[in-house]
Design brief:
With 91 residues, this protein is an alpha+beta fold. It has 2 domains: 1-38; 40-90, Irregular (HU Protein, Chain A). It is built from 3 helices and 5 strands, in the order ααβββββα. The protein has helices at residues 3-14, 18-37, 83-89; strands spanning 42-44, 48-55, 58-61, 68-71, 74-81. It has a 3-stranded antiparallel beta sheet. The chain has a two-stranded antiparallel ribbon with strand order 3-4. α1 (3-14) packs across α2. The mean pLDDT is 95. It comes from Flavobacterium amnicola. Keywords: DNA condensation, DNA-binding.
Length: 91
């Protein structure tokens, strides 16, 4: 399912226009992104939670040459599925 398919499904399920569904989805995504940028956490009970984790700088290897390279530190987004979501997927 891509973003367009999701917008269509939201519009059909909620009985709203595609434009309203797109606006709602964009608002949700924007708020999740904004919260994560501030270092916060977004939690939807039963569905899951998003958080930001810091990944330290480390040494790596170029697979073509075998030469050691430096990999910079960065922040990564993590998602942990909630119990309800995990349960529904594993039925």
């Amino acid at each position: 399912m891509n973003k367009s398919d999701l917008i269509d499904a939201i519009a059909a399920d909620a009985g709203i226009t595609k434009a309203a569904a797109k606006a709602a989805l964009e608002s949700f995504l924007g708020n999740v992104e904004g919260t994560l940028k501030k270092g916060g956490r977004v939690s939807l009970v039963g569905f899951g939670s998003w958080s930001v984790s810091k990944r330290a700088a480390r040494d790596g290897r170029n697979p073509q040459t075998g030469k050691t390279i430096k990999i910079a530190a960065k922040n990564v987004v993590k998602f942990k599925a909630g119990a309800d979501l995990e349960g529904s997927v594993n039925k």
